[in-house]
Design brief:
5 strands; elongated; alpha+beta; 3 helices; homodimer; five-stranded antiparallel sheet; about 20% helix
Chain lengths: ~150, ~150
C-alpha cells in the first residue's frame, strides 16, 4: 500500500494508450459540448481546428480513463482519498480523431495537511501527448492520500 | 456581437438547469472513470461519498453542457475564440443522482493580449450549485475573444 510518505518530488510515470475515434468525439460533443467544430468536419473547416476536433473536456475524460486504468493496474494499491482539484489546466493543441494519446506525470510537491494529521496532498503535473509526442494538454492534479500508520 | 471590450470585471450571469440521473452517472463512469464509488451504491457506501456519486470530470462535462446551451442561447453571439484553460478547479461537494445543477459566473479579470493586438482574455469564475444552493464545484475559465474592430 502506498501512503502519502511514499510519494516524492521528481517521481515520474509514463502510461496509457487511448485511440481517439470519430464516433466517440461526436458522441461526447452531442451530450456535453455541442459546438459545431466538435460535431463535423465541415463546421470545423473554417475554424482554427481545420477539421473535427475533440472537446477539451472530452480530452480530460479520456485522460481520466487512462489514469484510472493505471491506478487500478500497474501503479499498485495506494491510500488515495480522491482529488481535491486541478490547477493550471491548459489545452495546448487540438485532439483529432485518429490521434493516440498517452500520459506522463511528475510529482511537483508533497505537503502534509495542517488540519488533518492523518493525510497529505501530492501535486502531480499531468502531460498528455499525442502520437507525435506533442503535448496536447497539461494540468496539475492535487491528490489526497492517507499518511502511513508507521509515521 | 460581443467583443473582448464588452466584458467587464464584476459582470455576473446565472443560468442552466441539469438533472443528474443515475443512468448517466454510471454511463459516464464506465467509459471514463470506473472507480467503484462512481459505479454502484454498494461500493460507495463505505467511502466518504456514502452513495453513488458522479465523477468530478462528469460534473465538468455537465457544466460545459449548461455553458454551451447558454452561449448558444440567452448569452447572445460573442467573438469567442475558445478557452485557453482552467485554473483553480475544485470539487467542493459530491454530486449525486437526483441533484439538479445550475451555474453562476462572475468576471474576475480582463486582459489585452501583448502578443496578439486583435485579441484579449477574460477570466471568469464559474460556480456550480446544487438544488440546495450548495456549491459543488468552482473553477476559473480563461476565455479568449477578438477585440472590437472599432477599438
Amino acid at each position: 500500500m502506498r501512503y502519502w510518505e511514499d510519494f516524492a518530488v521528481g517521481d515520474t510515470a509514463s502510461f496509457g494508450r487511448y485511440e481517439v475515434t470519430r464516433d466517440e468525439v461526436i458522441d461526447f460533443a452531442r451530450k456535453y459540448d455541442p459546438q459545431p467544430f466538435h460535431l463535423s468536419d465541415d463546421a470545423a473547416a473554417s475554424t482554427h481546428f481545420g477539421r473535427l476536433a475533440a472537446s477539451g473536456w472530452h480530452t480530460t475524460a479520456m485522460t481520466m480513463a487512462m489514469n484510472v486504468a493505471y491506478l487500478q493496474g500497474d501503479a499498485g494499491e495506494s491510500a488515495g482519498l480522491g482529488a481535491a482539484g486541478i490547477d493550471e489546466l491548459r489545452w495546448l493543441k487540438p485532439v483529432y480523431p485518429g490521434d493516440t494519446l498517452r500520459c506522463e506525470t511528475r510529482i511537483e510537491e508533497t505537503r502534509a495537511s495542517n488540519s488533518r494529521p492523518d493525510m497529505g496532498s501530492v501535486r502531480s503535473r499531468m502531460t498528455v501527448l499525442n502520437q507525435n509526442d506533442a503535448p496536447v494538454m497539461s494540468f496539475v492534479a492535487i491528490g489526497l492520500y492517507r499518511r502511513s500508520p508507521q509515521s
